[in-house]
Amino acid sequence: MNNLSSTAMVLAAGLGTRMRPLTLTKPKPLQLVGGKTMLDHALDKLVVIGIERAVVNTFYLPEQIERHLCLRRDLEIIISREVELLDTGGGIKNMLHHFGEKPFLSLNADLPWIDGAIPSLQRMTAAWSTETMDALLLLMKTDKARGFSAKGDFAMHADGRVHRMGLQPPLAYVWISAQILKPQLFKTVPEKIFSNNVIWNKAEAGSRLYGLEHDGTCYHVGTPEDLQQANDLLASGQGWAV
């Protein structure tokens, strides 16, 4: 962790529209997977690798998320309540001052994964190279990732460089929530509201977008049916392996 910020970002501001009616009364990050909220799954992974504080953005039903976060005692939580939804890139840029000049980890609060023998965030921090990378994404083979469409997100070279521009689906890999990002990428984006796709495109254009393959399992919980299936598989002992 010496070359990364000790502060991470957790994105929890989404509307969770595909999860309705469950999200009409409880935001998606607080839905339970394996008896634990998806938000806590993300925060627990940060604690394991020694992250000291996490910035968590909120927007939809923010009071519920903020009350839940008050229960955490194992790391400092900084709340970023958005008065307008800033999207994934804008949400990070809004709190960029908390990360300093070092690269930082960012996780989505609504995509749980189960690690292999070594925590994936630990593998990511070990793989990070400030000299060659502007962004490092945690990826999984599309045909092994539960809950995703078959079209995929990215292709990956043997050296770990990732690309998608000019390619047609299906692509071999999907992104599964975690990334390491250089803060400098955000400082050249003039917009206030924008997607992380803008950041990824900038990194790819400079051949500085990289990926690391996840060696565990995951479940993209996008709908109530996905949530039920994810929990049923865990309860049965079968797990999420395809």
Q: What's the CATH class label?
A: Alpha Beta
Read across the widest sheet, the strand sequence of neighbours is: 5-4-1-6-11-8-12
Category by helix and strand content: alpha/beta
> Please, how many helices?
7
By DSSP, the count of extended strands is 13
Uncertain residue segments: none
- Rg, rounded, reads 17 Å
CATH topology: Spore Coat Polysaccharide Biosynthesis Protein SpsA, Chain A
Mean pLDDT: 96
- CATH architect. name: Alpha-Beta Complex
How much beta, percentage-wise?
15-25%
Order of helices and strands: EEEHEHEHEEHEEEEHHEEH
* CATH superfamily annotation: Spore Coat Polysaccharide Biosynthesis Protein SpsA, Chain A
The percentage helix is 25-40%
In whole angstroms, how far apart are the ends? 32 Å
What can be said about the biggest beta sheet? 7 strands, mixed
Number of domains: 1
Describe this protein's structure.
This protein has a seven-stranded mixed sheet with strand order 5-4-1-6-11-8-12, with helices on both faces. It has a two-stranded antiparallel ribbon with strand order 2-3. A two-stranded antiparallel sheet has the order 7-13. The protein has helices at 38-48, 62-69, 87-93, 120-127, 184-187, 196-205, 224-236; strands at 7-11, 32-33, 36-37, 53-58, 76-81, 104-108, 113-114, 135-141, 155-156, 162-163, 173-181, 209-213, 217-218. It has a single domain (7-235), classed as Spore Coat Polysaccharide Biosynthesis Protein SpsA, Chain A (Alpha-Beta Complex), CATH 3.90.550.10. The longest helix is centred in the last third of the chain and has 13 residues, at 224-236. By secondary structure, it is an alpha/beta fold.
